[in-house]
Structures are given as structure tokens and as C-alpha cells.
Write a sequence for this structure.
């Protein structure tokens, strides 16, 4: 199983190499691919050093699958060229997510939509992934009408430059700014660019991707996304209105029995999900489960997950695992 990781020197690309190792994905040959300026650099994988190669050399090596984390413009240009060479592409950028001809996949939710004919598969936005993992079992049981979500997102979602900015500010060091404003001791209510409707691109990703992944355009979603000075993962306050009423204990048991979810909901002992505890974990953590007392059939919940792992690298590798196990690679 030849595997290419495109964008292998970046924050998410490095995490993909780590996740491939940890999950024992059967890589017989690794092909690390990156931009021209990174060609010739070395990356470590399972104790061995591999030289980074160019896009053209990555295609020529004929991997079975190429996992992309190299940005939208790169994916738009190169993913079709990999696909044309018969290589399955799992893309972590936003380039293909809302393309009607491409599948947008979270394995716990909708892996069954994948077929042998899918050559470019989109990995969803990190904040959407963790939310739909928690929402899917509830939607099947109670049918979701409306979701109001506010996110509290880690600087790691922006990349190394943002992590450096935060640590520089903590240490009173002047440095390059990833954000327009200071992030330490602050919260920035803008992730990505603003659109004409006053929402940010990140907020509208959550709206549109949720309906596509869950296969139900009737679900109404509204979002506010905020960047905060944390490192371990993204947190979300989610208010969910259902068509049908629920028993809270039954709902908790349903979540606890669902794949990829860990319920941490013991307020008597101050146990609830936090990003520092989700760090380097692949699960989605759910807690603070309680009724919204202002209207019927409505739940408040708190969802936390490591955005570099389940929100990016792990989800992509899980897609590759599903394809391999089902003869799609």
C-alpha cells in the first residue's frame, strides 16, 4: 500500500504521519509530497527518514491513495491530476467540500456513501466533524430541526504561525502576527473572511457541510465561530431542537453507546469535556447535557475534540481505512 501525504511538512501533514503510524495503517511505501521550496527536506515516519518529493514525482510514484493537506488552491490544481492517474485523493482543504460531484465524509456518519468511482473525497471542516459525530445518533432517534452552535476554536486550527503568535505573546516577544489582533488573553469573533451576509466563511461551512454530511437539507444550522488562546482542541456550545421529545438519561446512553463518542457528564464531580483533556485523542467528547428550559424538545450540549486529529488527520486516515477494508482502494 503506497501512500502519499501531500503537504507532509505542515502542521496537519505532520499529524497525518503520526496518525498513520499510531493506527498501524499498512503503508508499504511512504511518499511525502510538498511544495517546491520543501522538496529535498526530510520527514520521519516509523523511525525512518524520507525525502520530500515534488507533486509530479508524487504522481509518478503511483500511490494507491494521496492524503492532501496543502491548502485549497493546491488541491484545486493537483487533486484532479492525481485522480487522473488513478490515485484516490482524500483532501483536507475546503476546495471540494461543497462540490455536488464529490463526497464529504465523516466515517461514523456517512462512510457508506463511498464507492469505487470516488477519486476525490473531501474531508470536512474540523468544527463540523466533531459536531456531526455527536449529532448523528440524536438525529436518527429524535430528528433534528434546528442547531445553534457557538465555537471556541484552538489556535492550532490556523497553523504554526498562530501557535507562534500565541507563545510569543505569552513570553512578551515581538513576532509575526497570524491574526489582526493579539490572541493571548483575548477572544476573536472571526474565523476566516466575512461574507456578504455578515457571517464568516467558517460559520457558513458549518451550516452547509452539516446538511451535506447528514444527508438532510431540512436541518437548520446557525453558527458563530470564535478563536480563543487554547491549544488542545476546539470546543462547541450546541443547542439542538428536535421534532420529537427525549428522555435525558436515554439520550446520554445513546451517545455513550455511539462510535467515536465519549460522554463526560458528571457535574457532581466537575467532570465535563475540556480541550486540554482532548489533546492527542481521536474521540469526540460530549458533556454538559441538559434540557433547554425555554422551549420544548431542545437540548444544550458541550462538544470538544482535538481539531488536528479527529478534526483533520484522523478523519482522513479513517476514510482511507474504510476504503481499504471495503475494497475501494
Amino acid at each position: 500500500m503506497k501512500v502519499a501525504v501531500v503537504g507532509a511538512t505542515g502542521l496537519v501533514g505532520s499529524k497525518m504521519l503520526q496518525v498513520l503510524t499510531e493506527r498501524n495503517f499498512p503503508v508499504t511505501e511512504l511518499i511525502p509530497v510538498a511544495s517546491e521550496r520543501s522538496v529535498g527536506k526530510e520527514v520521519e515516519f516509523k523511525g525512518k527518514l524520507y525525502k520530500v518529493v515534488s507533486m509530479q514525482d508524487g504522481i509518478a510514484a503511483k500511490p494507491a491513495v494521496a492524503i492532501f493537506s496543502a491548502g485549497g488552491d493546491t488541491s484545486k490544481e493537483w487533486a484532479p491530476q492525481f485522480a487522473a492517474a488513478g490515485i484516490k485523493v482524500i483532501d483536507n482543504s475546503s476546495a471540494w467540500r461543497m462540490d455536488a460531484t464529490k463526497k464529504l465524509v465523516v466515517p461514523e456518519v456517512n462512510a457508506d456513501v463511498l464507492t469505487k468511482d470516488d477519486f476525490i473525497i473531501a474531508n470536512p471542516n474540523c468544527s463540523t466533524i466533531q459536531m456531526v459525530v455527536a449529532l448523528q445518533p440524536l438525529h436518527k432517534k429524535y430528528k433534528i430541526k434546528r442547531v445553534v452552535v457557538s465555537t471556541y476554536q484552538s489556535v492550532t486550527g490556523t497553523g504554526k504561525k498562530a501557535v507562534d503568535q500565541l507563545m510569543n505573546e505569552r513570553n512578551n516577544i515581538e513576532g509575526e502576527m497570524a491574526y489582526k489582533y493579539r490572541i493571548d488573553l483575548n477572544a476573536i469573533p472571526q474565523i476566516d473572511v466575512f461574507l456578504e451576509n455578515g457571517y464568516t466563511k467558517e460559520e457558513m461551512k458549518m451550516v452547509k457541510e452539516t446538511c451535506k454530511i447528514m444527508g438532510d437539507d431540512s436541518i437548520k444550522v446557525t453558527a458563530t465561530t470564535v478563536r480563543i488562546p487554547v491549544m488542545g482542541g476546539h470546543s462547541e456550545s450546541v443547542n439542538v431542537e428536535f421534532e420529537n421529545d427525549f428522555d435525558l438519561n436515554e439520550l446520554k446512553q445513546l451517545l455513550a453507546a455511539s462510535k467515536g463518542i465519549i460522554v463526560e457528564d458528571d457535574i457532581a464531580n466537575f467532570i465535563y469535556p475540556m480541550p486540554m483533556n482532548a489533546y492527542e485523542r481521536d474521540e469526540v467528547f460530549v458533556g454538559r447535557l441538559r434540557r433547554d428550559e425555554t422551549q420544548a424538545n431542545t437540548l444544550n450540549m458541550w462538544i470538544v475534540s482535538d481539531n488536528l486529529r479527529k478534526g483533520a488527520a484522523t478523519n482522513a486516515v479513517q476514510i482511507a481505512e474504510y476504503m481499504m477494508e471495503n475494497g475501494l482502494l
About this structure: The two ends are 9 Å apart (CA to CA). The mean pLDDT is 97.
